[in-house]
Amino acid sequence: MPRFSIIVPSHGVAGRLSLALDSVLAQSYGDFELIPVCDAPGSPAADVATGHAGRDSRVAPVDSPPSAGLSGARNTGLRAATGAYVLFLDGDDTLAPGALAALDARLTETGGVDVLYFEHERTPWWEGEPTNPAAPLLAKTPAGALSPAQAPQLTGVQLPAWSAAYRRAFLAEHQLTFPDGRFTDLGWGGLVTVAAERVAVLRSVVVRHLLRRQGSRLNLPGEHHHQLLDQVELVLTAAQGLPPERSHALFEQLFAVVLKTASRPERLPSGHRAFFRRAGRLYRSHRPADFPAPGGSLGVQHRLLASGAYTAFKALRGVNRSASGAAERVPRPRMLRTRLLYARALRRRIDPNLAVYCAYWGRGYACSPAAIHAKARELAPHIRSVFLVEPDAVDAVPKGVEHAVIGSRKYWEVLARAKYLVNNANFAEGVVKRPGSVHVQTQHGTPLKKMGVDQSTYPVVAAATGSFAKLLGRVDRWDYNISSNRHSTQMWERAFPGSYEALEYGYPRNDVYYTATADEVARVRRELGVPEGKTAVLYAPTHRDYQTGFDTGLDLDAFCEAAGDDVVVLLRAHYFYDQGRAKSSGRIIDVTGHRSSEDVCLAADALVTDYSSIMFDYANLDRPIVVYADDWEVYRETRGVYFDLMEAPPGPVARTPEELAQVFRDGSYAGPESTALRAEFRSRFCEFDDGLAAERVVRRVFLGEPPETVPPVVPLAERVPAPAATLVRS
Question: Residue 223: which pLDDT band, with cuts at 50, 70 and 90?
């Protein structure tokens, strides 16, 4: 029997689950079993848990459907537990280093208590000092093991379930499980404390709890707040017969929670009066004899609740306080004339048939916004679509596409009135998220490198990013965030914490890799100047934050000579270095300025890249990919990455120019090993890209079709990528 069973529910926190599991597996004390509770086999969290189980036999995942909620997940973990003591850990929290050793030592010292309460840190999700809310409560507790009557303030009501260790035999003897519904920690904590006979405390931090940027889901408005009274009634019923010194503290703490909710009517969009009246009935029927009401304003609230004086309570708590001037704090355009124009447009009603698109901060008609735009014109022709571009990109907008120049009068007018706003980056700082508008973030690549707030620990990148607070203000405008694979979904959750809905529909810009014909591939090659019969190798290095200016990092002329006479290189630098003029020479064709990276990929017979996200898109074509990683260690340390590309590459890895030339000279770049690596890579990162992504987005977002009616993802084995020009696909 292990000393500890550590149960970790994981619903909705797959992006941080690995951090929680790693914090347990890294403990110096190793006598434990780790039980991640996942939604179902194949879910993002299950994949994380299965990976850890494959590396450590102490990890034993179990499944619980999301419909069972947090209580169901914890109870499933309890049934699977075999340890002497049970601990709970939320899937986005971590154990402090040395926590299990400290728990073991304290349990040995106190001799088998039913419950051992301990301190925890509440860590702000971004900036600020951690707090230790349990410390003042536990500091008042006598040393050693004690009966609950010796520490009546330890009711469990003020502590979360993951702030204690529980003797499993004690839980089984009293048949203690987490009650159904919301606020299950309150019900569990109260029931456990009522049943316990010997308890103790550990005055050191065991769990580090990460406060969600969005706040607790329990604090959101909704009918679930009525379930708080269900939990209170459950505990009060179980507590009947407790001696006064215990029942008084329990009663007071329970109704402190009730009054906190009653004083925030915004949490109850309907039924606030019914909540108050039921709370009053519970108060009167369960109030212990000789219970002394608290003093001050809180005591007045107790008396009003006891008498059912809802109107007086409402007046006392200032329910009619008006909303603060939040709209005035929203950033506005700087120029006075523009500010007045935009403010006037914001007062007009939203146009339900207007959609605004932007890609790469206005660089042109490109990427997923362009793909969605084209599909919307086909499936939702009633919607007026306007593409936003910088002045120098106007000439590149296709004929028939309505556009607005960024900063113009029309630009601010359509931004103010559009129902739908689609972008692969972010709209300007001054853009207001109007109630009723729908913002779609398409992203522009699968993340290998750290993104969003995950960049904060990399000084060079953080300095270039600017204000993370402003970044997250822009994230708060998103309603939907598009993902092409579960890896991306999890990393976006970490990098851009927000309340948006993830649409695992694939990247619309990648649709063309399954819809393009051989004639279209030939046309693009002619437009780019690829000689007939030549093997076109796309070389697409990424941007390096620690470098100034663009350096190919490779002698491309020498590569062509070494790779073979039939090789030409399509050079596509990162879009940061697009100067609008080609630098082609000899067998090097500069395609950096070409508006469509998708066209360039279609034209290429093979891809050579370092750490660019283009590899994830190109993999959809099922054509050879070679990773040229001459500075992987430096890049990983200065930029940060989400996984080790060297351990899971999409094809051969070359670390020197000689190695790169060799894989082309001997044909191994397209050999069996390369094919096997690419197949594994595609199964992981081309998960939802099947040629129907833009249609899914238009049907779900623009046409309002329910999720279950959008086209399902075509299995990878059934997809047929666009044909290559010179290579025969196996």
Answer: confident
Cα separation, 527 vs 533, whole angstroms: 15
Q: How far apart are CA 92 and CA 18, in angstroms?
A: 9
Using an 8 Å Cβ cutoff, are 115 and 192 in contact?
yes
Q: Which of 17-26, 335-344, 424-433 has the lowest mean pLDDT?
A: 335-344
Q: What pLDDT does 581 receive?
A: 46
Q: What is the pLDDT of residue 726?
A: 58
Residue 618 is predicted with a pLDDT of 97
Distance, CA of 166 to CA of 173 (rounded, Å): 12
Of the pLDDT bands very low, low, confident and very high (cuts 50, 70, 90), residue 580 is very low
Range in 341-345, 352-356, 457-461 with the lowest mean pLDDT: 457-461
Q: Rounded CA gap, 500 and 438, in Å?
A: 10
Closest CA to 203 of 111, 117, 114, 95: 117
- CA 206, 211, 217, 218 torsion-angle sign: positive
Residue 607 has phi, psi (to 5 degrees) of -120, 135
Phi, psi dihedrals of residue 528, rounded to the nearest 5°: -85, -10
Determine contact, residues 627/650, Cβ cutoff 8 Å.
yes
Q: Which helix (H) or strand (E) holds 378?
A: helix 367-379
Q: Which long-range contacts (CB under 8 A, 24 or more apart) does 380-385 make?
A: 380/698, 380/702, 380/703, 382/353, 383/353, 383/354, 383/355, 383/420, 383/702, 384/351, 384/353, 384/354, 384/355, 385/355, 385/356, 385/357
Residues 358 and 422 sit within 8 Å (Cβ to Cβ): yes
pTM, full prediction: 0.68
| Amino acid at the residue 190 | G
Long-range residue pairs from 308-317, CB within 8 A, at least 24 positions apart, any chain:
308/276, 308/277, 308/280, 310/273, 310/276, 310/277, 313/262, 313/276, 314/265, 317/262, 317/263, 317/265
- Relative to beta strand 438-441, strand 418-423 is parallel
Token reading at 35? 């039980």
Calpha distance 192→202 (Å, rounded): 18
